[in-house]
Structure to design on (879 residues):
């Protein structure tokens, strides 16, 4: 094992130069130099996100990120897009629960201009009324369209019901979006877009000194501001089944899960990830895939994973099956979770899972963008610098007893929230044994 | 703006398209394309089979894809899914995908695992089991895949119908995953026969890209693949798509809140000299927020939530694909008229300097970005070889893009983006037919 680890260590360094963390004019960030490629990416995280939307005006951060690339004080939306795209560069922004992300990618020779436009979008968005009106219409339409995509709505509905009552379970609706004003967007921007609250990663073919120079040149006029405080996840899961009724659907989308305890250390995180790989995260290697897909032929895919917040996590299983076999698929899945909770993993399973993480992280850090995103995740969740190479830093020391402790602590079949998107008249009876069933009709738009 | 475009023309240099391909042949005639890159610790090992849905016929549509699934269900020395599990426990990714023109199997993993990968791949390519019991279970899996990606998905349904509308005679007419009744009808024996007829060195080539040393890779491939016997070539596809002489329309009523359309204008094969100009035209029309379609429908008229387009280029022809999703309360037909007017009048209007430079620069930049991953390097090389016999054709074509003029773009737009060549699928809310 030792020899193998040394090899992996060397691979890690072959991928990119050492990460250089910096603080320039009060702005924190990191540079990951890569000499062998022709591009550079800047990936900026602003802590905030949809969980921080004002009550009754859910959708502010979503609308704001759409508008970041729709014109600045200096350029109209059209001029901004032309400038970016004529260079062959890309700029985009999106919101998550606890952060807003904006990134710019370009060929090396255009990076200075691309960075300046990213900074312009970040610092000086125009939020013109004309653009706000258009983006609100688009956002409301996209909320309606989600209900046309069973897989998408299954995940969204599951999350909303599971986290109901917390800042993460609030949903944007046409009504909340309609209420948002330009002043709301400006207030949100003033509150979160500041030096204390952002983290900048620049990765690719660039000298660290040049990268830091750009941060100073283009971002130092950000206000000092205040860091956003993490939000609590104080909800408990109750065993219940929701059916989102789609009478004509030939197949049912299934989501199951619960709010989980957060892990206390990165070693415990590594043990939990290994455990999840064995149960449902490891593709064809997972127990779920072996039984539900390969043996029973009930689905094309079944996966489990944890989604994290700064102050908590939730566990989710995602699959789909034809309407006639919904009960069987849920039953077998729950049985696998129960068995895993009670009996844990085997040494052989653990070794294989370790092999996946230790052998495979160079693949997951192949491009500058991969590095940049991982550094931002470490920053967002407060994991620290060791998280960037968490596989080689924490996986080797995880023992079977650690994985089995994780299996008992984090994996169980009750309480379990189940959401099915399919025809209620065909699947309701199959689901009644798993908990009280509530049938929900899709909203009208 | 003109000055900006002028500068950019010279700012984008020939860059580091340093992809060098070494073409070798094993003693049994199996062709190998090696693409070493000493800067990456990743290897992409790809086995390309020159058969896809294009090489099928009614009754067995989807059989190439079904066989792709069965290739994971065990071979002489490995049990069901064991190949995939072994690759994963060694830190790799393994998968495959079937398309119209080919089936590609790949293992992305550390180059130090070359012996293991070659051993696993050769075993299934030479000795796949295709056991009736495993087949019966896997057919259900494929059927679920079809339900998920097509029958329970408005986008999947629209796309399937659009291709069927655009190609009436050519095998591109049927979906890669196959018609439902065909999926339910073929047997393990039929799939095995298809495997025996198609999967041999006459119809296969291997691409290995990434942090590899060619001189070390070749003996390994020779060791595992050289006993694989050559067989018959896949029969040529003789059917040609007749000229389209009028627009074609289809309407599907589904439970959707947001009506939308997909449309296609048929274009010539990948090898055609018109493709670079068409790709530039497609970029100007449909890609990015500065594209004509986006500016007109999303920004100026504000009727669409999303609108754009792109090119799908295949062996025997392809299409310029365009999509339009209207905002709630907007009339899809009216918006569609604006969309088609933008596309079909494109050749008659003025093309700005910045538009043409944008398209060229986007093509070059997006290729550069793809080449940051060993997997995409392998795909670029593989597609070039499959379609033209020249593994570095994609690099030569980048040169062709630089020479495209406004006149070239207008000429191809006038030739292909016409009312008569229009194919449209509308997805409309239930009850709309009344």
């Amino acid at each position: 094992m030792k020899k193998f680890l040394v090899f992996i260590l060397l691979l890690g360094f072959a991928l990119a130069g050492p990460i250089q963390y910096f603080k320039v004019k009060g702005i924190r960030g990191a540079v990951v130099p890569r000499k062998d490629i022709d591009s550079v990416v800047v990936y900026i995280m602003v802590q905030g996100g949809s969980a921080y939307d004002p009550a009754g005006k859910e959708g502010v951060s979503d609308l704001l990120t759409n508008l970041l690339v729709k014109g600045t004080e200096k350029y109209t939306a059209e001029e901004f897009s032309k400038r970016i795209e004529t260079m062959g560069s890309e700029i985009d922004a999106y919101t998550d629960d606890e952060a807003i992300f904006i990134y710019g990618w370009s060929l090396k020779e255009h990076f200075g201009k691309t960075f300046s436009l990213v900074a312009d979008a970040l610092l000086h968005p125009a939020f013109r009324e004309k653009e706000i009106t258009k983006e609100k219409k688009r956002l409301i339409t996209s909320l309606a369209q989600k209900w046309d995509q069973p897989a998408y709505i299954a995940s969204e509905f599951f999350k909303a019901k599971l986290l109901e009552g917390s800042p993460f379970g609030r949903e944007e609706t046409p009504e909340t979006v309609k209420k948002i004003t330009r002043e709301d967007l400006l207030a949100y921007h003033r509150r979160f877009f500041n030096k204390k609250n952002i983290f900048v990663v620049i990765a690719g073919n660039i000298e660290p000194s040049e990268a830091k120079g750009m941060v100073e040149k283009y971002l130092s006029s950000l206000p000092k501001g205040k860091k956003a405080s993490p939000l609590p996840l104080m909800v408990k899961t109750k065993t219940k089944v929701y059916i989102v009724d789609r009478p004509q659907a030939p197949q049912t989308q299934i989501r199951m899960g619960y709010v989980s305890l957060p892990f206390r250390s990165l070693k415990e995180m590594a043990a939990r990830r290994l455990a999840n790989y064995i149960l449902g995260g490891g593709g064809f290697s997972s127990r779920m895939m072996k039984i539900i897909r390969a043996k029973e032929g009930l689905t094309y895919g079944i996966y489990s994973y944890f989604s994290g917040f700064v102050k908590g996590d939730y566990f989710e299983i995602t699959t789909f099956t034809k309407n006639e076999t919904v009960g069987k698929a849920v039953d077998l899945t729950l049985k696998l979770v129960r068995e895993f909770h009670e009996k844990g993993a085997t040494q052989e399973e653990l070794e294989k899972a370790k092999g996946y993480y230790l052998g495979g992280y160079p693949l997951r850090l192949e491009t500058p963008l991969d590095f940049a995103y991982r550094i931002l995740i470490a920053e967002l969740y407060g994991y620290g610098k060791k998280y960037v190479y968490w596989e080689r830093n924490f996986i080797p020391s995880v023992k079977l007893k650690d994985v089995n402790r994780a299996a008992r602590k984090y994996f169980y079949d009750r309480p379990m929230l189940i959401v099915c998107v399919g025809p209620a008249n065909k699947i309701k009876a199959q689901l009644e044994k798993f908990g009280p069933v509530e049938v929900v009709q899709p909203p009208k738009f | 703006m003109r000055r900006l475009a002028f500068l950019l023309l010279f700012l984008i240099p020939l860059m580091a398209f340093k992809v060098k391909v070494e073409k070798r042949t094993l003693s049994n005639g199996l062709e190998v394309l090696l693409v070493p890159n000493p800067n990456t610790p990743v290897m992409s090992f790809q086995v390309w089979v020159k058969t896809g849905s294009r090489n099928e016929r009614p009754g067995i549509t989807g059989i190439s894809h079904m066989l792709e699934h069965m290739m994971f269900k065990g071979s002489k020395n490995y049990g069901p899914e064991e190949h995939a599990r072994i690759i994963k426990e060694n830190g790799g990714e393994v998968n495959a995908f079937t398309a119209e023109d080919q089936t590609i199997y790949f293992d992305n993993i550390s180059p130090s695992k070359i012996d293991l990968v070659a051993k696993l791949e050769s075993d299934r390519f030479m000795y796949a089991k295709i056991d009736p019991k495993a087949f019966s279970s896997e057919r259900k899996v494929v059927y679920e895949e079809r339900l998920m990606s097509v029958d329970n998905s408005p986008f999947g349904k629209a796309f399937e119908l659009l291709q069927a509308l655009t190609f009436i005679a050519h095998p591109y007419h049927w979906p890669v995953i196959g018609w439902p009744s065909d999926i339910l009808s073929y047997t393990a024996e039929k799939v095995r026969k298809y495997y025996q007829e198609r999967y041999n060195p006459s119809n296969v080539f291997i691409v290995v890209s990434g942090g590899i040393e060619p001189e070390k890779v070749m003996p390994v491939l020779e060791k595992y693949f050289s006993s694989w016997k050559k067989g018959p070539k896949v029969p040529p596809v003789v059917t040609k798509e007749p000229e389209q002489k009028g627009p074609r329309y289809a309407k599907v009523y589904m439970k959707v809140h947001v009506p939308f359309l997909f449309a296609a204008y048929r274009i010539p094969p990948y090898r055609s000299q018109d493709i670079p100009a068409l790709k530039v035209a497609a970029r100007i029309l449909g890609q990015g927020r500065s594209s004509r379609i986006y500016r007109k429908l999303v920004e100026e008229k504000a009727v669409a939530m999303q609108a754009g387009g792109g090119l799908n280029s295949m062996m025997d022809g392809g299409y310029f694909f365009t999509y339009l999703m209207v905002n709630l309360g907007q009339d899809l037909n009216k918006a569609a008229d604006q969309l088609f007017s933008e596309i079909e009048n494109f050749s008659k209007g003025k093309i700005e300097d910045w538009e043409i430079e944008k398209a060229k620069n986007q093509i070059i930049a997006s290729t550069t970005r793809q080449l940051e991953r060993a997997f995409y390097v392998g795909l670029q090389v593989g597609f070039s070889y499959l379609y033209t016999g020249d593994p570095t054709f994609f690099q030569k074509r980048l040169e062709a893009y630089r020479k495209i003029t406004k006149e070239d773009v207008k000429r191809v737009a006038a030739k292909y983006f016409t009312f008569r060549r229009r194919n449209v699928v509308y997805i409309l809310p239930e009850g709309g037919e009344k």
